[in-house]
Amino acid sequence: MAKRRAKRANVGRNTHKTNKLNHQQSEKVLIADGSTAVTAVNTKNFLGNVAAELHIAIAEECDDKELLSLRRACRKSAEDTSDVFAKRFFATARHCLTADSIKKLCDITGITWIARHIETLDIDISRRHLDQIMKGKSQEEQVQIRAKRVKDLKRLTEALQRLSTLGAGSILVLHAFHSTVDFHCVGTALLRSNHAPRKLRVELVAVDGTSMINSPTLSSEDLGRFGRVWRRLETLDLDLPYVYDFFASKHPIMQLVRVIHSASSLKSLSVKADGFPGVASFYKTLGATHLRTLEMKDEELSTAELIKILEHYRHSLRKLSLSNVTLDRPDGWCAVLQKIRDDMQLEQLSVREVDHHESGIPYRFGAERAREFSLNLQPSAMSERLTELLVVAPFSD
Prior knowledge:
2 domains, LRR_dom_sf, single chain
C-alpha cells in the first residue's frame, strides 16, 4: 500500500494551508508538469491565483475517499468549480497520477475532459528493469524476465491508449539508466498506442555499454512507422550521457534519434550531449525546417561542424544558446560569431563558458573579456554588439 504524508504549503498571497498527499508510486506511468514550484498564472486564461506550491502525488492504490478529499482540498484553496478548477488544478501544480487515478478523479469530479489540461506524460522507466539485466541470470530467471517484459509492455501500451483517449500527455518524458530494453518497450508501446506527443524529453543519466551489444532493437518496419508518432512534436529535449565511441552506435537512444528526422513540425531543440559521439550529424539530418530555438550544452564540435549546423538553421532560427561548448581551435569562436553576425537574424543569443581544446579555459569575448553574455536585441543592434564582442583583447589577469 502506498505511503501518505501531509505537508503544509503556502497558497498564493493569502497563504492558505492545504494538505499535500504524497504516495509512493507503484506504476511507472506518471503525469507531471515538470516544474517544482509554479507561480500564479494570468487570470485571462481563467487560471487566477492558486497554490504555487501545491504538489500532489496519487498512486494507483488511492481509493475514492482519498481522491475525494484531495478534490475538496483543492477546490477549497482555489475556490473554483468544474472546468475552472480543472484548469487551475493541472496547469499550476506538479502532479504525478497513474492512468487509473486520472479515471477515478474524472469520475469523482464529473469532469470527463479533465485530463486535457495535463501538460506532461512522464514515463519513468529507469527503475523498471534495473534488477533485470540478463547477465548472470539462470535460464529459468531469463524466461521469467522475458515474461515480465512482455507483461510490462502490454500494461504500458494500455496506459498510453487510455491517456491518449482522455486527451492527456502532450509532453512525453523518458528516463533510463542501464536497461536497453526500456527503449524497445517504449518505442513499441508508442507505436501500438498511436500516441503522438507534442513535447519529448529524453534523459539518460548513466549507460552500461556492455549491455547494449546484444540488446533488442526495433525492426526497420517499426522505425519507419515512427513518422506518425512525431507528427505533432514541437519541442525536443535530449540529455545524452557520455559513452565510448564503440558503444555510441549501439546506444538505444540512437534508434529514436534516427527516426526523429521526420519531426517536421519541430520548433524548439535542446541537446545536452556530454561528449556523445556523432551528435553533430544529428543536427544536420534533422528535418526541422521551422526550428526557431536551439540550445546546445556540453558539446565538443569542430568549428566547421558548428558553422554547418548554424547554416542549416539560419533561415528559421531566432533564439540560440551555447553553453559549455568546446571547439577545436582558438579562433573558432570568432568565426562562429562572424557567421551569426553576417548570415543570421537572431533575436536572442546566449553564450556561456565556451572554450577550445588547446587551452581548456573559458574563451573571453571583446575588450571587456566577457566569459559569458546574453543578448536580446533587434538585428541591427545585435550586429553592432557582436562586432564589439569580436574584438580580441590582449590577455590580462
